[in-house]
């Protein structure tokens, strides 16, 4: 996939507070990228810079390959006593877009049946989808979504997730999305950018990392203290241990090597298996570091 947007060493400071510090990343065409971090990490600040709502920063945002950026930052606002169709037509006219595009987007976001209903009667999930439709009115190359599933019930979360995936696939649009629902991002995204205290601390490629990342294995044994000492001396990354088990991060093809080493040292193993790690586990580990 070709690169569509680059962020190079972007920093932002307000008085003595460093909001962003040397943030760098790139987005590729047609991918969905999660922007992950705790409250106050700088996620919304980055998004506001990308869409032009914040101009006081240093560094470079290269938009030379971008025709237009659509965005939904924070909860979208609509005229409650106008229909979904009327609301979209209002914004369409402001952007020089006709009714055909509005009807296409209502269909794309699954809102055709609700198009002639007042927005006041929409569920929160429907209003979020209407907000995404508004962000797509000018056929953007890049779509920036800040917490699009915030406050939704499980059905609403599922619907928004599936429509975002549909947009990226069918329209070949790059999506940058922030959310605290890490399980949803894991299901949706191709890559993730982890940010902490205004700095990018890790980039994760879900497709490549499945093959190349270090995996936490659980070693159940009769002498966990000796086991962790042996592995640590040999340079293995021992994550933790207790009286019953040792957890070590290794490549998937190193499992047999571990078994041979412990057998050689006469360690009695009662189990050796892969721990179930999630994006949330990775996030918590990075935030603790």
Structure description:
This protein is 36% helix and 30% strand. The protein has 289 residues and is α/β, with parallel strands linked by helices. The chain folds into 2 domains: 207 residues, P-loop containing nucleotide triphosphate hydrolases (Rossmann fold, 3-Layer(aba) Sandwich); 75 residues, 2-Layer Sandwich (Alpha-Beta Plaits). Strands 5-6-7-3-8-9 form a 6-stranded mixed beta sheet, with helices on both faces. A hairpin with a 2-residue loop joins β8 and β9. The longest helix is centred in the middle third of the chain and has 18 residues. The mean pLDDT is 91.
**Spatial strand arrangement across the major sheet:** 5-6-7-3-8-9
Order of helices and strands: EEEHEEHHHEHEHEEHEHEEHEH
| Main beta sheet | 6 strands, mixed
Distance between the termini: 32 Å
The Cα radius of gyration reads 23 Å
- Oligomeric description of these chains: single chain
Q: Are there runs of 5+ residues with pLDDT below 50, and where? A: none
| CATH architecture heading of the largest domain | 3-Layer(aba) Sandwich
| Coarse structural class | alpha/beta
Which descriptors apply to this entry?
289 residues, alpha/beta, Rossmann fold, Alpha-Beta Plaits, 6-stranded mixed beta sheet, 4-stranded antiparallel beta sheet, 13 strands, elongated
Mind sketching the topology for me?
Blueprint: E1 3-14, E2 17-28, E3 32-36, H1 43-50, E4 58-62, E5 69-73, H2 84-94, H3 99-108, H4 124-135, E6 142-146, H5 154-171, E7 174-178, H6 182-188, E8 191-196, E9 199-205, H7 206-212, E10 215-221, H8 224-233, E11 237-241, E12 245-250, H9 255-264, E13 269-274, H10 279-288
Helix pairs in contact: 2-3, 4-5
